[in-house]
Amino acid sequence: MRGRISQDTPVGVPAKMVWEVYRGLELSRLVGEYLADVIGKPQVLEGDGGVGTLIKLNYPPGTPGIRYMIERFTKIDHENRVKVTENVEGGFKGLGFDYYGFRLEIIEKDSESAIIRSSIEYDADDKLADVAASITTRPLEIIAEFVGEHLS
């Protein structure tokens, strides 16, 4: 079973500014500083924010099921403002998914606004259909909304 869900979040700041946050480690820093109680506490395990960087996200206490996730930055396309990460340990990978990843795109709407497109892509055995049904982009939306407000 393969799936993809996506959410567009409009923000009232230029795409260039949004990309400066999303492209490297700044997003992890902001999540850790302002959203740790909602999203979790990111920790850089390896890398400088480029391809190959490993981030461990420890979910907040009380989060059902999954305790942590380690993701690897697999693609950073500065020209098209696209960042792709793959869950390599814990998270949905730890629940048996063959692939679970995020695709984050910053789309220029006009000179003063952008759209943050947050997508989750996954591949898993059909027996995990009930687990796949629980996948939501809501945490990514919370982050996108926060980034838009923070940059405003």
Automatic annotation (TrEMBL):
Top-level taxon: Eukaryota
Span of domain Bet v I/Major latex protein: 2-126
Keyword tRNA processing tagged: no
Tagged with keyword Nucleotide-binding: no
Biological processes, Gene Ontology terms: abscisic acid-activated signaling pathway; alkaloid metabolic process; defense response
GO MF annotations in UniProt: abscisic acid binding; protein phosphatase inhibitor activity; signaling receptor activity
One GO cellular component term: nucleus
UniProt KW keywords: Alkaloid metabolism
InterPro entries given in the database record: Bet_v_I/MLP, Plant_def-hormone_signal, START-like_dom_sf
PANTHER family in the cross-refs: BET V I_MAJOR LATEX PROTEIN DOMAIN-CONTAINING PROTEIN, OS08G0374000 PROTEIN-RELATED
Family of the protein in this entry: Belongs to the BetVI family.
Full protein name: S-norcoclaurine synthase-like
Species in which this protein is naturally found: Tripterygium wilfordii
